[in-house]
TrEMBL record:
InterPro entries: UppP (IPR003824)
Protein name per the record: Undecaprenyl-diphosphatase
One Pfam family it belongs to: BacA
UniProt source species: Paramesorhizobium deserti
EC number assigned by the record: 3.6.1.27
GO biological process terms, semicolon-separated: cell wall organization; peptidoglycan biosynthetic process; regulation of cell shape; response to antibiotic
Enzyme class: hydrolase
Family indicated by similarity: Belongs to the UppP family.
Catalytic reaction annotation: di-trans,octa-cis-undecaprenyl diphosphate + H2O = di-trans,octa-cis-undecaprenyl phosphate + phosphate + H(+)
Keyword Translocase in annotation: no
Topology class, membrane: Multi-pass membrane protein
Compartment(s) where it occurs, according to its Swiss-Prot or TrEMBL record: Cell membrane
Entry GO terms, CC: plasma membrane
Length: 268
């Protein structure tokens, strides 16, 4: 394994951690950056497996809250309903993701032009939604109705198209269905835990026979960087979103999508 591959893994891991929890599509950024860096991962597993670093970033930041919820689970109906809501929201992605896994990895992940188009389209949608005069009805993720959780879960499935953004789709869906900005982003954090863990476990199982020691080294390098950057983002994102909204992320999507589209048209 050469140093360039490890350096590329560091860059891509940093990108994963910085973009996983903001509505700009971490997978889209990884696929575009990997395309232009000439980075190739076995079975396109790197892009999925380094999400473990981002998962652990959430767990480390939210450990205290998760521990309190675990202790309250046996006797607190509100906590049980919230956990059930997260599981219900996770189900659509689990079922559809397993059924469409081959198509997603072999077709959608191999189409950088699609990534750019989705980044640009999502940028315009974020700008539009951010400027709407919405009247939130839900301000605490613990009080989300189960029906709302299921609807957000179906909206999350749009993120199987690289460039859409898992966090972006769940946040926008929650906003349009009555959540405020902070709770929408927080629900996206909680939903990320089973969704990303499920994607990690399923992809590792499907590709267990083709991964090598070199692959493990590259993946571990990206995982460490994703964890470090993910902790930073999770700690500060909610406060930023509450004060400033999503316009910055929308413009970032438009710039990256347009630059990627131009580069593809010029260099292929």
């Amino acid at each position: 394994m050469d140093m360039k591959t490890l350096f590329d893994a560091l860059i891509l891991g940093l990108l994963e951690g910085l973009t996983e929890f903001i509505p700009v599509s971490s997978t889209g950024h990884l696929l575009l950056a990997g395309h232009f860096l000439g980075f190739q991962s076995t079975g396109k597993t790197f892009e999925v497996l380094i999400q473990l670093g981002a998962i652990l970033a959430i767990l480390s930041v939210y450990f205290g809250k998760l521990w309190k919820m675990l202790l309250a689970l046996p006797h607190d109906p509100r906590t049980r309903r919230f956990v059930l809501g997260i599981l219900i929201a996770f189900l659509p992605a689990a079922i559809i993701g397993a059924m469409a896994h081959g198509f997603i990895k072999s077709v959608l992940f191999e189409t950088p032009m699609l990534v750019c188009i989705m980044l640009i389209l999502g940028g315009f949608i974020l700008l539009y939604v951010d400027r709407l005069d919405l009247k939130p009805r839900y301000h605490d993720v613990m009080d989300y109705p189960l029906s709302l959780c299921l609807k957000i879960g179906f909206v999350q499935c749009l993120a199987m198209i690289p460039g859409v953004s898992r966090s972006g789709s769940t946040i926008v869906g929650a906003l349009l269905m009555g959540a405020d900005k902070r709770s929408a982003a927080e629900f996206s954090f909680f939903l990320a835990m089973p969704t990303m863990a499920g994607a990690f476990a399923y992809d590792l199982f499907k590709n267990r026979h083709i991964l090598s020691f070199d692959d493990a080294t590259v993946i571990f390098t990206g995982f460490v960087m994703a964890f470090i950057a993910g902790v930073f983002v999770v700690r500060y994102l909610l406060d930023y979103v509450s004060r400033h909204g999503f316009a910055l992320f929308a413009w970032w999507r438009l710039i990256v999508g347009a630059a990627g589209l131009a580069a593809l048209l010029v260099w292929g």
